[in-house]
Automatic annotation (TrEMBL):
EC number of the protein: 3.1.3.48
Originating organism: Pseudoxanthomonas broegbernensis
Keyword Disulfide bond carried by entry: no
GO molecular function, one term: manganese ion binding
UniProt protein name: protein-tyrosine-phosphatase
Family: Belongs to the metallo-dependent hydrolases superfamily. CpsB/CapC family.
KW Hydrolase (keyword) present: yes
Keywords: Hydrolase
Secretion signal, residue range per the UniProt entry: none
Lineage top rank: taxon: Bacteria
A matching Pfam family: CpsB_CapC
InterPro entries: Caps_polysacc_synth_CpsB/CapC, Pol/histidinol_Pase-like
Reactions mediated catalytically: O-phospho-L-tyrosyl-[protein] + H2O = L-tyrosyl-[protein] + phosphate
Amino acid sequence: MIDLHYHLLPGIDDGAKDLGMALEMARMSVADGVATVACTPHIYPGMYENTRAGILEAIEAFRRRLAEADVPLRLVEGADVHLVPGLLDGIRGGAVPTLAGSRYLLLEPSHHVAPPRFEQSVFEFMAAGLVPVITHPERLSWVEHDYDVFVRLSRRGAWMQITAGALAGRFGKRAQYWSERFLGEGHCMILATDAHDPRRRPPLLAEARDIARRLLGEEEARHLVVTRPQGIVDDLPPDALPPPLFGDPAFHPRAPGGEGFLGRLLRPFGAGARR
């Protein structure tokens, strides 16, 4: 498997605090079946002033530590990039990395308030030849009121990354519900851990893959953690990769405090129907 959202580099943001924690997390990933990870520290002006040059230097240093510790984990570059003014110029100027140097950009919106002109900003990145991969929309506090925005973006070519732990229930019933809905309605392209530490936010991807298998079948589960992530690393265009599937109508996510609805929504399409 390939994990493309991972705060693994030690001491560079709010992820792994030190080398020992980073090595523990790396070993956990290997034991979980992950072969490649993108090191994606935050880039957030005023809080995390990381740059591509600094991230590449930190990756190279950690590669040496992994080799010394005999941990067979491949590292590629990336960043958890916050949506701020001037971001496109930073990408063009080489200060902000994309995933593995590809056209795919890991883009993090504000957690608590819908960013002004969010939809327009995403389309501007796409017009510049990038494929924004919007991180953890299922955990955003404003998803209830703006789910249609993510649906429109997905249909226009933006990608969505759902958090493995959210799908597994580690972030509560609300995030689990929205995770299942994004997957079941065909608006999730990849799963990733967004791991920050070994305990509270661990790098566990296989459990989410197994849930996706029950919802979407073996083939789509593999696309979520292998095929599409590898396509990103190889910088393949989105239309060269398999599109997401609708889910199994027998799988009914249940809204927190409410009744299930997704099975009724998907029933007319049948299991595995393509968008």
